[in-house]
Amino acid sequence: MNYPINEMFQTIQGEGYYTGTPAIFIRLQGCPIHCKWCDTKYTWKCLSENKISYEELIKKTTSNQKWSYINITKILKNIQIKEWTAKHVVITGGEPCIYNLLDLTEKLEEKGFKCQIETSGTKKIKCSENTWVTVSPKKDQKTLHTSILRSNEIKYPILKEEDLLYLEKILLIVQNKKYRVFLQPISQNQQALEICIKYCTIKNWRLSIQLHKYLLIR
Ligand code: SF4
Which of 12, 54, 112, 182 pairs with 159 at a CA distance of 20 to 30 A? Predict the structure, then answer.
C-alpha cells in the first residue's frame, strides 16, 4: 500500500509518554480537521502540484507542502539508506488515521520497530494491536469514543482554563480506568504552561512541553 508522506526524519520524541526517546518520524500528508493553532498546516492538503518523487522526498530537510506516495518497502529502504538507528517509529501528520495503518504498523513491527500513532481521535484507528496510540482530542471536534478507549495516552492541548471542560467530558468515557493524561501548553504559551502545571499537580497528570521546540530540533 502507498501512503502520502510529507517527510521522514530521525529525531528525539518531544511529546507525551515517549518524550526523550530516539524516534523515526513518518509524517503523512492530509488533515481535514484544521485546528486554528496547528503547527503543521503544510500537511493539510494533498495537492497534485505539490507531489514529488521518492528521491526528492528523501532529500527533504525542511518542512513544506511537498509530499510523495511511498510504499512500505521504500520506507524501510530509506531507513536503511540513512542508517537510522532508532527503533521507535512515530506515525504522525496531518491526521494519520484518515488512512488504514494496519499494514504499515504490522510491517514495521515485523522489522523490530515499536510503532506509535499520534492522532486527533476523530477518525477510526486502524493499526496493529501493539501500536501505542496517542490521542490528542481537539475541543471543537468530535472525538470518537472508540479512539479514546483504544488510546494508550491522552495528550491534551491547553490554551485557556476552560479548555479543561472538554477533557473532563472525554475522561468520563474511561471513568474507571487508570489513565495516562498529559497536558500540553499550546505554542509554548506561558499562561497555558502555568495552567498545565497547576492542573497536572492537582490531578496527578503529567506535563508535555514539546521538548523538541525548546531544543530547536525537528
Ligand atoms: S489534527 Fe493535528 S494536523 Fe490536523 S489540524 Fe489539528 S493539529 Fe493540525
Answer: 12
Long-range interactions of 192-195: CB distance < 8 A, separation 24+: 192/158, 192/159, 192/160, 195/158, 195/160, 195/161, 195/164
Q: How far is the CA of 149 from the centre of ligand 1 (A)?
A: 20
Ligand 1 center–CA 114 separation, angstroms: 23
Answer yes or no: are the C-beta atoms of 147 and 122 closer than 8 Å.
Answer: yes
Please state the separation of Cα 213 from the chain's center in Å.
15
The tens-digit pLDDT sequence of the chain (218 residues) is: 999 999 999 999 999 999 999 999 999 999 999 998 899 999 999 999 999 999 999 999 999 999 999 999 999 999 999 999 999 999 999 999 999 999 999 999 999 999 999 999 999 999 999 999 999 998 778 899 999 999 999 999 999 999 999 999 999 988 767 789 999 999 999 999 999 999 999 999 999 999 999 999 98
* Ligand 1 pocket mutation pick from 6, 28, 34 by most atoms within 8 angstroms of CB: 34
Q: Which domains does the chain have, with CATH numbers?
A: 2-215 (3.20.20.70)
Minimal-distance CA residue to ligand 1 atom 7: 38
Q: In the block, which residue shows the cell 501493539?
A: 130
